[in-house]
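User: Can you write out an input/output pair for a complex, sequences first and structure second?

Assistant: Here is one pair. Inputs:
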Amino acid sequence: MDFPKQLTGKILLKEELPFEKDEIQHLLDSNDLIRTPSITKTFFQLICNRCGNKKHHLFGKIPCYRCQKTHFYCRNCIQTGRAMECTMLYEWTGPQANWPHETNPCAWEGTLTPAQSKAATAIQRAIQKHKEQLVWAVCGAGKTEMLFPGITYALQQGKRICLATPRSDVVRELMPRFQTAFPHTKIEALYANSSQKTGEGQLILSTTHQLIRYKHAFDVMIIDEIDAFPYHQDPSLHSLAERACKQISSKIYLTATPREKLKKRVSKIQLAAEFVPIRFHGHPLPVPISKLEWNLRKKINNKKLPQTLDSFLQARNPQRQLLIFVPTIHQLPLIKQLLINRFESLETVHAEDEERKEKVEAFRQKKYELLITTTILERGVTFPSVDVVILDAGHHVFDEAAIVQIAGRAGRSPIDPTGDVLLIHQGLTEAIKAAIKHIQSMNNRAKNQMQPTKIKRS
Amino acid sequence: MYCLICHQKIIYHHTWNSMLSPLSQICEECSIQLEPIQAPICERCGRPFKEPSICNDCLNWQRDPQYEKSLAFNRAIFTYNDRMKDIVYRWKYRGDYELVHLFKPYISEKFPQFYPNTKIPLVPIPLTDERMYERGFNQAEAIAQIIRDQFHNPIVHALSRKQNSHEKQSKKSKIQRIQADNPFKLKISINKPIIIVDDIYTTGTTIHHAAKRLKEAGSPAVYSLTMIR
């Protein structure tokens, strides 16, 4: 086994080390591995050194059989292993891994649009100079391709790269695309229950939570959808991403809908930003149409099909697939029941659905006409030709970013670059208004960028 | 207070009643996803059943000459629905010990209904030393401690588990599980009625094996209580 490759930049529980007991002891004796306690107790607080949790209610007490004491353990990172007061974290201090310097790693033969290549150059420059860079690109701008030149450069330099994204669907979608683009590079896809954990990836595609096992590992950290749940709400994930980077490293943030905090840093010139308002196929973003439906929530609960949805279904292009977003899991079966006679094949999916992976894949292969979903499919996933409906768009889960992202699911394919986006609500909210405005202003910017002479005249 | 399952803040509605019973440590949204077992139930194993009689699985146990008289009856609090499967997974296999506290209010409500006015000794189902080290705690013991704290029934560690059974129960088929040798050894014999305590009654094999040992050692009646059926 190649110890340095397996262990460089990792921080692991004993159970997570891929060795037998005496091997571990040997590595400890030779100072190639060091141990640190996984929970630090100070007078005022507890800190989990594995996930950075400091919230007292996320620590539990366990009467531990191993050490015969009742002590704390971390409940925040328990889904990926149990850090207790009596367990240690193991870090590699032996020789660092040598990653190959590939001369020609990229096999991707497509070409970037002018807007894409401008952003791609900015990314590459940030990687060269170990800097931070924000790329603000609309949904469907082709963010993945923009990364290729930068990643190519990093691989030529023998750097280690991580692309962190909030959702496992996205990791699963990106994995085959990256493997085709970089056929000789060791790529790992990390998400809960992933079957592709080799432990030796130079390029790592990961959900943010999986970064819990890395420390000072990466020269390049690319954070996709930086504004998304859970990254947006959970500050401990920021520190995980931070810890996973080497001290000298570059960070690339990708998003279509940056939050206020990030925008402020851009306007204060603390953070370099590159703007891509045009989709890769050059067509404008579909602008959502909002429709008022009286007593929408009541109608859904009483199992009545909302009229606006009914007339939309009659008028729409039946060639396209349809995505319906609902605010909560409980509404999925209700809506399915309402529409079961209108579609030949339909399915529902939500975050804790055991067949989530299979259902999303089946929808992509056009096995269903309709997929009813919660906000888990709001971003990252690409279906070539869909119409989108948000049912109860006034619900608080649909904030501006969510609506912009959901609307961005439509019209992704160059063959069918338009798509209808319908927001059904029982009262216009600020979020709906802001989202529509956001999309319109993007389209305006795109228009101006394509015809720069025109602006000057006006 | 935060919900044990989803970590959201819980807002309590305090009433005279709520002051007398232990506070629920899970939020309303999580608690409606759990399914407490309601009558009618199988009179023997305590699972929900179409009429108050005996289910087929129990008829099979009663036909087996080895086990027919081992267990008097089992009572359980929850069904094993998908939500409960997630909870048990996190609790036992991930080792999130604190989750045991979510059973507290349900135990204080149901235990006196199942076993009124008695201080019958509790015998938690033991783990092998190996599994105990790996998990760090015994889930059956944790439940028994909750009952003891509330109703003062003594806990007796009357059984131990043999080391040799290497595979987890969940990795065996139903027939394999029933035919497997009795993994329990008697440590202390009790000539009083006994309540066996475990987290879950799936096929009932574990509990019948344990009941058989205790019955052989002279207990006049062996009952059992599980959180899940």
